[in-house]
Design brief:
The protein is an alpha+beta fold. 47% of the residues lie in helices and 17% in strands. The chain folds into 2 domains: 6-80, Winged helix-like DNA-binding domain superfamily/Winged helix DNA-binding domain (Arc Repressor Mutant, subunit A); 83-254, GAF domain (Beta-Lactamase, 2-Layer Sandwich). α6 packs across α8.
Length: 255
């Protein structure tokens, strides 16, 4: 493998430093950073001097610990405040449609509902009730459960959410409407990393969904594959869910 040119090596070191500083709120000493990044302290000190001059790192006490600076935080907050989720995720939606040859959705949470921001149909798609800008109860949808599972951390939070937004209404005979059953369903989603809507929103239709984080601690959206139940069997849904989860992880990492 060829060595990166010095300029690219410097960029790589700077990006690694941002990642490391952003991962610990208590900061790092120069010695700790040198060990974590496997860089000489002299080189690291020069990079940190540039970071400090531009607001990307702070050192409140001379010789003390280094922290991620306000410029990096402001850039991240500005991005999250202004990002166009539909534009960010549209290429992922296209990849999902092409990979699985089924209808792909992207949705966000709004109160107790999901709102569909994007939808790309496959060549053999069936008529679905979902439309861009349309809403469905989050508890009855794959995208809703994918987001709620990683927003509500435990059963107590699930109960609080249902107390605020409930009662859970049955869309079909398969919709989960009891607190205990819904909490157990979300626990399963957390363990697997994907959710399944087994004819809970529409009879005859199944959906597999995965949350999208883009660096946030809770999902900013969810994406899904939706198909008639005769094309998406329960056994196949497990395999599809893992593949969809992996596809989303690669997209979030590489864009």
């Amino acid at each position: 493998m060829t060595e990166p040119v010095p300029a690219m090596r410097g960029v790589d070191r700077a990006l690694r430093l941002i990642t490391v500083l952003g991962g610990r709120g208590s900061g790092y000493t120069l010695d700790e950073l040198s060990r974590v990044l496997d860089l000489p302290k002299s080189s690291l000190h020069r990079i940190l001097a540039v970071f400090r001059a531009n607001g990307y790192a702070t050192q409140p006490e001379p010789g003390g610990r280094y922290f991620l600076g306000p410029a990096a935080l402001e850039a991240a907050f500005r991005f999250h405040e202004s990002m166009d989720l539909r534009m960010l995720v549209h290429q992922l939606i296209l990849q999902i449609r092409d990979r699985f040859d089924e209808t792909a959705h992207m949705a966000v949470m709004d109160g107790s509902d999901v709102v569909y921001l994007d939808k790309v149909e496959a060549s053999h798609s069936v008529r679905l009730t979902s439309v861009i800008g349309g809403r469905n109860p989050a508890h009855a949808t794959g995208v809703g459960k994918a987001m709620l599972a990683f927003t509500l951390a435990d059963e107590a939070q699930v109960r609080s959410w249902i107390a605020l937004h409930g009662p859970l209404v049955a869309r079909t005979e398969n919709t989960v409407v009891t607190v205990d059953a819904f909490a157990a369903r979300l626990d399963t989603v957390r363990r697997r990393g994907f959710s399944l809507d087994d004819e809970e929103s529409e009879l005859g239709v199944r959906c597999v969904a995965v949350p999208v984080f883009f660096g946030s601690k809770v999902p900013v959206a969810a994406v899904s594959v939706t198909a008639p139940k005769d094309r998406l069997r329960i056994g196949d849904a497990e395999t599809l869910g893992r593949s969809l989860r992996d596809l989303v992880a690669v997209y979030e990492k590489n864009g």
